[in-house]
Specification:
alpha/beta; single chain
Length: 560
């Protein structure tokens, strides 16, 4: 394409800057940028366009986006001065050989593919047009907060035959880059704009970005109407004060919207039943592995299956925040590849989704590997994968299964499987099955976390100990053995029917990053509450009356 080496026009950049004192402020509340990655016969993957034009990605981030945006990897690129990003193959020749030797996932299929990725921000803190991060994060659920150190990428990849192209194929990806984990919203947005963009190219994309720049910012607790390309997307932004498992978005003011809006029941929730269909009988094990922050590899046949499975796993702890790292789609070209594949140290606490069979060998030392096939809904209970020993993990003919030596602390919930099977027999809709599964996981997580919440609340000083004349009292330390003693009379057995070694599960949880993240967050909130109560006590303190001198004049100072 003749746009491959285009630089940004100064006039357009200056016009955008002068249109508003904060150009792209509303756009930046939702997206950091939109990228177009194309395949060039001579260069390989190339960043064709970044919009808005003044957004800057580091060279490291650009290379990562190149290879995460294509499901078939052939060659590498780097960047030049940070505007339009291209480089010649010889600059990174040695690395290119590796890239050419191990394509991440060859896809012979034609058509459109959607998937997600998550990459680490490089180059330190960035300035942003959107200046309201603090307020949003204070009101949003912990699981939906704006990321400060990572980007989410939402990809729409098209691969179709095209006789006008030298290779005979049209291959291009449209990528939405954001710090918000709104997978449902952004994938739905891509379904609207990507097909139109592939036909009309840059003018269409510029018009869409200008429309997004008119959207109201995402405010937790509000239902928003988001117009784009003649369609109004109606969404509700979840709030921290929402009751867990509450009903989805309620439609409102539709009588004034013509045509009727596209209502998204959730901006972030996946179809859990479809994602977990091959591992339903092992959902208990997977929940424990995620709770304990264990290193997990998800090996899938496509980026779509890989990213959906990883995102489903990280969501199964809600409302508890998953505090470890996760990569819905990970390739051998990622900057953390060596870090994650080294055998000189234990695998990190992370969930990675991969498609390249090469990872079967390089990640063979990881303790938990989940291999799945294509997700297909059928009229019966999908064939369930088996738990297998890691020694049976082979390089070529590895069959679907959970390769691990992990022994669960809790027993399986056979009632859940029976309810889901009954739903399949009655042809119950997948969204209803997902709601049952999500409710089960929510109740399981709540049963586990409620005793911890009760105990940590008991560490808070009494309000009568707060006085305006002294510093606020300290929160008492968390003592694991003291907590364990409370479980006999106030443990998870009060709200959960599952039997097993709950004490062992708690002891293992105390060693995980999820406990550290949960404790730090709760301690921070309690400290802020103490400081607020102390300030309130100071404001309400009864100050003594001023004394008068013998002449009747008021002394201009306060005396005890």
């Amino acid at each position: 394409m003749d746009a491959l080496c285009r630089a940004e026009p100064r006039s357009r950049r200056n016009a955008a800057a002068s249109a508003s004192p904060l150009p792209w402020a509303r756009f930046s509340a939702w997206l950091d940028c939109v990228c177009v990655v194309t395949f060039d016969l001579e260069l390989g993957q190339a960043m064709e366009l970044v919009y808005p034009y003044d957004f800057r990605l580091t060279e490291k981030e650009v290379i990562t986006i190149f290879f995460l945006s294509f499901s078939m990897v052939l060659m590498i690129l780097s960047s030049n001065d940070g505007g339009f990003l291209t480089v010649c193959f010889c600059l990174l020749q040695k690395t290119s050989i590796c890239y050419l030797s191990f394509p991440d996932s060859y896809s012979g299929g034609l058509g459109d593919t959607q998937f997600s990725f998550r990459l680490r921000q490089s180059g330190g803190q960035r300035t942003t047009h959107y200046e309201d991060d603090g307020e949003y994060n204070r009101e949003a659920p912990l699981t939906l907060q704006r990321e400060s150190a990572h980007y989410f990428g939402y990809v729409y990849f098209r691969q179709v035959k095209d006789s006008s192209m030298k290779r005979g194929y049209f291959q291009k990806s449209l990528v939405l880059v954001s710090r918000l984990p709104y997978v449902n919203l952004f994938q739905s947005l891509l379904q609207l704009i990507a097909p139109e963009y592939f036909d009309k190219l840059e003018p269409c994309l510029e018009a869409v970005c200008n429309e997004i720049d008119q959207w109201p910012p995402p405010v937790p607790g509000q239902t928003l109407n988001l117009p784009v390309m003649g369609v109004v997307i109606q969404v509700r932004i979840p709030s921290r004060v929402d009751k867990p498992g509450s009903s989805p978005v309620k439609q409102f003011n539709q009588e004034n919207l013509l045509p009727a809006p596209l209502v998204l029941p959730s901006i972030h929730e996946l179809d859990l039943f479809r994602c977990f269909q091959p591992v339903l009988i092992h959902i208990q094990m997977l929940w424990e592995l995620m709770l304990l922050g264990e290193p997990i590899v998800v090996m899938a046949p496509s980026p779509t299956v890989s990213s959906e499975m990883v995102l489903a796993l990280t969501s199964c702890l809600a409302p508890l925040r998953y505090c470890c790292d996760y990569r819905p789609y990970f390739t051998i070209h990622d900057s953390e590849f060596k870090e994650y594949t080294t055998r000189t140290q234990a695998p990190p606490n992370i969930v990675v989704g991969v498609t390249n069979p090469f990872f079967i060998k390089t990640l063979q030392h990881w303790p938990h590997i989940l291999r799945v096939g294509e997700l297909r809904m059928s009229g019966d209970l999908p064939k369930q994968v088996k738990v297998k020993k890691l020694a049976k993990l082979k390089t070529l003919d590895t069959k679907p299964g959970i390769y691990t030596s992990y022994k669960t602390f809790l027993h399986k919930d056979k009632t859940l499987i029976k309810r889901l099977l009954k739903g399949i027999q009655r042809k119950r809709p997948s969204e209803v099955q997902s709601a049952l599964l999500r409710r089960h996981l929510l109740e399981l997580t709540q049963s586990f976390i409620i005793p911890l919440e009760h105990y940590i609340a008991s560490l808070m000083p009494l309000q009568r100990a707060i006085t305006p004349w002294k510093n606020p009292p300290q929160i008492r330390p968390f003592r694991q053995e003291d907590f364990m003693k409370t479980l006999e009379h106030a443990g998870p057995q009060l709200t959960c029917v599952l039997k097993g070694d709950w004490l062992g599960l708690y002891r293992r949880f105390f060693k995980s990053p999820n406990f550290d993240g949960w404790y730090r967050q709760r301690h921070k909130e309690m400290t802020q509450k103490l400081e607020a109560l102390h300030l309130e006590a100071i404001c309400e303190a009864a100050l003594p009356k001023p004394r008068e001198c013998q002449t009747g004049s008021v002394i201009c100072c306060w005396l005890p």
